[in-house]
Design goal:
With 769 residues, the chain is an alpha+beta fold. The chain is built from 12 helices and 44 strands. Bound molecules: [4Cu:2S] cluster and dinuclear copper ion (CUA).
């Protein structure tokens, strides 16, 4: 065996060998023995079999969960409950370079409030875009409750592309809910406040504080919210809560509930009873019914006035045009959920034990015949409860949210106080089954269960407390998402998943095969604007440009590249006080070959996925030496993927000595390296012969590996030529170093080739010649 194969084998097989030794004792045990040792029941084993996903296996559904106070989105698979990704949304996230590269900083900057950077979000409700009421998997929205914002995430690369800020609200809980063709994203306010950015005393609450509901216009072609075409309904200062869009027969309408329609303003400091007493004293609150389709027509016809750059429909206009109605709701309502057929709307009262089912048919009749029981203090017509209610069902104490099954009329409601899930029939109004939950469930989610195309099968309970469910990790406990099998008559609890990141309020799911994310960007891509970066750099065209203005302020632009295993440039020289703008393009085309870029003391951390161009701008305000390196273990010589930023003092003059390495090489060293390279080439040739004699083109994974290997081999050729040129000049030092670089590329080629060969063997590729 020559040097190369020995080394390559030690790299490639070390992991596999280690694993097989340590697991041999385990695998000799029988299933019964394992069950006995671990105290597992047959029911446990069945649950495990329903959720366990063998190595390399995929999930049937993908879940997007809110990340709560982390301001992020959590992505995981069902039924395995394996976490796949955290997506940085309102909060900087260094692994993704989010909030560290200039491109994503520009996205976060869109979310500034009154010019102030806001570094976190309280994310509550994610929503996937829909076409004809069915999840289409193109984009994801999520709201920030604390700072009234909505973010747009592109599901082609799972990156946040846009953040919009409400021009009116000071808080917004009930977003994001989409209309059936993602025409609009619903986003109701929560705590009433003046629409103006000024001080208004609480004594003027009834007159000057307002609630509201924004319909953000989504441009599907551009994949961005169009603020200029979005409109907001001014609403009374009730605390507007969650929302849902009508569908089928109720298409064109939206529903959102509210609490604290008492309009209580608190003030224990002034000797008054607290908010919790004053905001829950009435027996009912109001569901708000809005006609967004007609509102959109009025906007289009130029009949709605703009204020602060947005269309604002005041209450007077809404009432006059028949755009806004109220219906009594159970005490302190929470959650409003339209059934998949669009015929009913369910609302639960947190302080009631009933979920109320409203009939869209009845509501529509009342509106058409103008049959109202009165008006609220702001002149909004109120539809009598009896003229809207279909059923009221006793589901348990503290019902919150409802989701739907693929089976007709079947709904599931989360029961907060009683800590359970109630399965019930909303057509007949009867309870079918109940399952205890650990503990205090908030939202719940069935597969695509808030769309016109629910898939049934699984339900996830998003619990508020986990108390004793996991190994203790201090006073701050993880959250607990519990997976439940809903395919049979009776619900079966399958799995507990701890979520150690914020309080995830709501989650949405999608059949995994509807998602088609890419694995690489077009070369030189600004992923945040989805366009070619002006800083795109090709291999061999790397350069550094320094320009100074009239006042002597200088900016250094570095147009660099990354590829296994070097960063170009490897030395960057600037002068103290220069603004440094680094731009790196990842030249890789291979799947998962991401390079990172981190630098000492400058808050620089980039994640450069294949094809991406990422930038970082900072002021080199202190003379010194700043090493930088790649933060992704991208190849065997990853640690050598390094460089230096030299910040020279003003007026620095280099002393005329060249760069000296610690080691020098002879002709013998060069010849020895060339011998190794020739032997390595033989191995590569054998691997290539194996691959090309099989039907490798039938395997896209192998085609990609071969493509990458071909690239690497091309680089090897370039290095070989440089090595030979140096040898011709008897420059043994450079001849040897370039021969070594030639070998580095060969190793990468061989590594890829071996991966391709193993893949073909494991997948039983056919011999073709
Ligand atoms: S809310 Cu948290 S449990 Cu923000 Cu949707 Cu109901
Ligand atoms: Cu690139 Cu490590």
């Amino acid at each position: 065996m020559n040097t190369f194969t020995t080394r390559a084998l030690s790299v490639c097989t070390g992991l596999v060998l280690g694993l097989s030794i340590s697991t041999s004792a385990w695998s000799a045990k029988t299933l019964e023995q394992v069950m006995k040792d671990r105290g597992l029941t047959e029911k446990n084993i069945l649950a495990a079999a329903k959720t366990y996903t063998p190595t390399g296996g995929r999930d049937e559904f993908i879940v997007f969960s809110s990340g709560g106070q982390s301001g992020q989105v959590i992505v995981y698979g069902v039924p395995s409950m394996r976490i796949l990704k955290y997506i940085g949304v309102f909060t900087p996230e260094p692994w993704q370079g989010y909030g560290f590269d200039d491109e994503s900083k520009a996205v976060l900057a869109q979310g500034r409030i009154n010019g102030k950077d806001i570094y976190y979000g309280d994310t509550h409700h994610p929503a996937i875009t829909e076409t004809d009421g069915k999840t289409d998997g193109h984009y994801l929205f999520i709201n920030d409750k604390a700072n009234p914002r909505i973010a747009v995430i592109d599901l082609h690369d799972f990156e946040t592309k846009q953040i919009v800020v409400s021009p009116y609200f000071k808080n917004a809980h009930g977003g994001a809910y989409v209309t059936p063709n993602s025409e609009y994203v619903m986003d109701p306010a929560q705590y009433a406040a003046p629409f103006a950015d000024e001080f208004v005393p609480l004594e003027e609450f009834n007159e000057k504080y307002r609630g509201g509901l924004t319909y953000w216009k989504f441009n599907k072609e551009k994949g961005r919210i169009d603020e200029s075409q979005s409109f907001t309904f001014e609403m009374p200062p009730y605390s507007q809560d969650l929302a849902d869009a009508g569908k089928g027969p109720s298409y064109g309408w939206g529903f959102n509930n509210s609490f604290c329609s008492e309009r209580y303003v608190g003030g224990t400091e002034r000797g008054r009873p607290p908010f919790e007493a004053g905001c829950s004293s009435k027996d009912t609150d109001f569901m708000h019914v809005t006609n967004w389709k007609k509102a959109a027509e009025l906007v289009k016809a130029g009949k709605v006035k703009k204020s602060k750059g947005h269309y604002l429909i005041d209450m007077k206009q809404a009432v006059k045009e028949g755009l806004l109605y109220l219906i009594p709701e159970p005490k302190s309502p929470h959650g409003v959920d339209v059934t998949p057929d669009g015929k009913y709307i369910t609302v639960s009262g947190k302080l009631d034990s009933h979920t109320w089912v409203y009939s869209w048919d009845k509501i529509q009749k009342a509106i058409k015949s103008k049959k109202f029981e009165g008006k609220d203090p702001y002149g909004i017509p109120i539809i009598a409860l009896n003229d809207a209610l279909h059923k009221s069902v006793n589901v348990g104490l503290g019902p919150l949210h409802t989701q739907y099954d693929s089976k007709k009329c079947v709904a599931y409601t989360s029961i907060y106080v009683d800590s359970m899930i109630t399965k019930w029939d909303y057509c007949q109004g009867k309870v079918l089954d109940q399952l205890p939950i650990h503990y205090n469930v908030g939202h719940l989610m069935t597969m695509q269960g808030d769309t016109m195309d629910p898939k049934g099968k699984y339900l996830v309970a998003l619990n508020k407390l986990s108390i004793d469910r996991f190994n203790p990790v201090g006073p701050l406990h993880p959250q607990n998402h519990q997976l439940i099998d809903i395919s049979g008559e009776k619900m079966e609890l399958l799995y507990d998943m701890p979520l150690p990141l914020g309080e995830p309020h709501y989650a949405v799911s999608i059949a995994a095969d509807k998602l088609k994310p890419g694995v690489r960007y077009k070369s030189g891509w600004n992923s945040r604007t989805d366009s070619r970066s002006p800083y795109k750099t090709r291999a061999g065209r790397e350069k550094t440009e320094r320009t100074c203005d009239a006042k002597g302020k200088c900016t250094v632009h570095v147009y660099g590249t990354t590829i296994r295993s070097h960063i170009t440039p490897e030395i960057i020289e600037v002068t103290e006080g220069d603004t440094v703008s680094l731009h790196f393009t990842n030249l890789e085309r291979a799947q998962d070959e991401v390079h990172g870029f981190a630098m000492y003391g400058q808050n620089v951390q980039l994640s450069i996925e294949p094809g991406k161009t990422a930038s970082s701008t900072f002021v080199a305000d202190k003379a010194g030496v700043y090493p930088y390196y790649c933060t992704e273990f991208c190849s065997a010589l990853h640690l050598e993927m390094q460089g230096y930023l030299l910040v020279q003092p003003k007026g620095y003059k280099a002393k005329a000595v060249g760069l000296k390495a610690g080691t020098t090489y002879t002709e013998a060293d060069y010849k020895k390296q060339v011998e190794t390279n020739i032997a390595t080439q033989e191995v590569i040739d054998q691997v290539v012969a194996f691959i090309t004699s099989h039907n490798y083109k039938d395997f896209p994974t192998v085609v990609a590996l071969v493509e990458d290997a071909t690239d690497q081999l091309g680089f090897a050729k370039g290095a070989k030529q440089k090595s030979e040129a140096a040898a011709a000049k008897k420059d043994w030092n450079n001849a040897m170093l370039w021969a070594n670089q030639w070998w580095q590329y060969q190793v990468k080629t061989a590594d890829l080739g071996l991966r391709a060969k193993t893949y073909l063997e494991e997948n039983k590729a056919k011999k073709i010649k």
